[in-house]
């Protein structure tokens, strides 16, 4: 038994040293993000809906910062979001691109419990993990997390998801930077 302590102690010391080295390397070689991307992303509504033709708000923010996307491609952000982006970037505001959709009031999804078959397709489609449940069991929308992106509706085979006006003021339509 005494013969095990020395190798075990050496292994623990080696792991601690490697952990400390990795921690130092992470701080030393940390790559700072683009502050402009962070500012643009903070203005976007974080619905992760993809209506802008990007897979989420951050990729859209990166494309705007690189000049690869225009500021008027976000229907959930609407006119207020476009104005905020224009102010942030020193550009002129422009109307929402009709190609990307129309501005709608904030909404949330709800699942009609008596019709849900528990197929799990809505859960897989939700970009913000606002739907909870398990296969073959009832699913429920966590309304505080739901962004109303509508991505859960098309995959539902029994059409048991409805959209309702959000009760609280929108947390993702911002009128200022």
Beta-strand segment tally: 4
Overall shape: it is flat
**Whole-Å distance between the termini?**
65 Å
- Share of β-strand residues: 5-15%
> Any guess at the CATH architecture of the largest domain?
Orthogonal Bundle
CATH class of the largest domain: Mainly Alpha
CATH fold type of the largest domain: 3-methyladenine DNA Glycosylase II, Chain A, domain 3
CATH homologous superfamily annotation of the largest domain:
Electron transport complex subunit B, putative Fe-S cluster
Structural class: mainly alpha
Percent of residues in helices: 25-40%
Radius of gyration: 23 Å
Q: In terms of per-residue confidence, which ranges show pLDDT below 50 for 5 or more consecutive residues?
A: 170-177
Any descriptors?
177 residues; two-stranded antiparallel ribbon; disordered C terminus; 8% strand; 2 domains; 3-methyladenine DNA Glycosylase II, Chain A, domain 3; Alpha-Beta Plaits; mainly alpha
Architecture overview:
With 177 residues, the chain is mainly α. It has 2 domains: 66 residues, 3-methyladenine DNA Glycosylase II, Chain A, domain 3 (Orthogonal Bundle), CATH 1.10.15; 63 residues, Alpha-Beta Plaits. It contains 5 helices and 4 strands. The strands form 2 sheets. Strands 1-4 form a two-stranded antiparallel ribbon. A two-stranded antiparallel sheet has the order 2-3. Helix 2 packs across helix 3. The longest helix is centred in the first third of the chain and has 27 residues. It is flat, with a radius of gyration of 23 Å. The termini are far apart. 24% of the residues are buried.
């Amino acid at each position: 038994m005494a013969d095990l302590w020395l190798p075990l102690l050496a292994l623990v010391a080696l792991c601690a040293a490697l952990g400390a080295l990795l921690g130092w390397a992470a701080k030393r070689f940390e790559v700072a993000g683009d502050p402009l991307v962070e500012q643009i992303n903070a203005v976007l509504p974080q619905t992760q809906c993809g209506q802008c033709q990007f897979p989420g708000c951050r990729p859209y923010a990166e494309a705007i910062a690189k000049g690869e996307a225009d500021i008027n491609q976000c229907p959930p952000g609407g006119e207020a979001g476009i104005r905020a982006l224009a102010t942030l970037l020193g550009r002129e505001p422009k109307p929402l691109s009709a190609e990307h959709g129309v501005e709608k009031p904030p909404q949330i999804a709800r699942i009609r419990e008596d019709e849900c078959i528990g197929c799990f397709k809505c859960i897989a489609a939700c970009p913000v993990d606002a739907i909870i449940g398990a296969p073959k069991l009832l699913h429920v929308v966590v309304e505080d997390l739901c962004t109303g992106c509508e991505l859960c509706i098309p995959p539902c085979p029994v059409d048991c998801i409805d959209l309702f006006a959000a009760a609280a003021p929108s947390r993702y339509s911002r009128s200022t930077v």
